[in-house]
Amino acid sequence: MKEPSPVTAKDGPDQDGEYRAQTRLWLRLLACTTLIEGELRRRFREEFDFTMPRFDVLAQLDREPSGLVLGELPKRLMVSAGNLTPIVDRLVEDGYITRTPSTLDRRVQIVCMTVEGRKAFRRMAKSHGSWLASLLADVPQERVNGLIEELDELKGAVRDALQKS
């Protein structure tokens, strides 16, 4: 079976036609993300009085039981430190996480999930998984697996293109 040739950017009279498929792909990805994210945000707000950004911080900390250097969180979440600071402050204030100076360098802050934070996160994570499953229930599992593989390839291709530019 012949592999399809990769799509490349071209200049010339057919340029609009060449870019139409890439634009449609981008818009479909964006539409799916927007629809799912909007529903998840609504459910977090209604069922837990919680925000997605706060949940995302807890999800990162759940992966690191010994905590994380505060400066690592913006990188992992792909947000600015300025946007993250009020979220972290609120999570500390509400007792979900702690923020303490490092014993090695007091300028460095370590953030850790509290026992209460971990319990709350686990409840929310269970619901989060259930919500996603219900939103995607009409998509057969083999199709989901195929989409994951295809999107992994797309992600790699985009990363490669970014490294070349």
Low-confidence stretches: none
Strand content: 5-15%
Can you summarize the main beta sheet?
Answer: 3 strands, antiparallel
> How many alpha or pi helices?
6
Gyration radius from CA atoms, angstroms: 20 Å
Q: Report strand order across the widest sheet.
A: 1-3-2
- The secondary-structure element order is HHEHHEEHH
Strand segment tally: 3
| Structural classification | mainly alpha
Dominant shape:
globular
Helical proportion, percent range: 55-70%
Give the termini separation: 32 Å
Mean of all residue-level pLDDT scores? 91
Topology:
Blueprint: H1 15-48, H2 52-62, E1 68-69, H3 72-77, H4 81-93, E2 97-101, E3 109-113, H5 115-135, H6 141-164
Antiparallel strand pairs: 1-3, 2-3
Helix pairs in contact: 1-5, 2-5
Give short descriptive properties of this protein:
165 residues, mainly alpha, 6 helices, globular
Give a quick precis of the structure.
66% of the residues lie in helices and 7% in strands. It is mainly alpha-helical and 165 residues long. The protein has a three-stranded antiparallel β-sheet with strand order 1-3-2.
Description:
- The chain is mostly helical.
- The chain has helices at 15-48, 52-62, 72-77, 81-93, 115-135, 141-164, and strands spanning 68-69, 97-101, 109-113.
- The chain has a 3-stranded antiparallel sheet.
- α1 packs across α5 and α2 (52-62) packs across α5 (115-135).
- The longest helix is centred in the N-terminal third of the chain and has 34 residues, at 15-48.
- The model has no long low-confidence stretch (mean pLDDT 91).
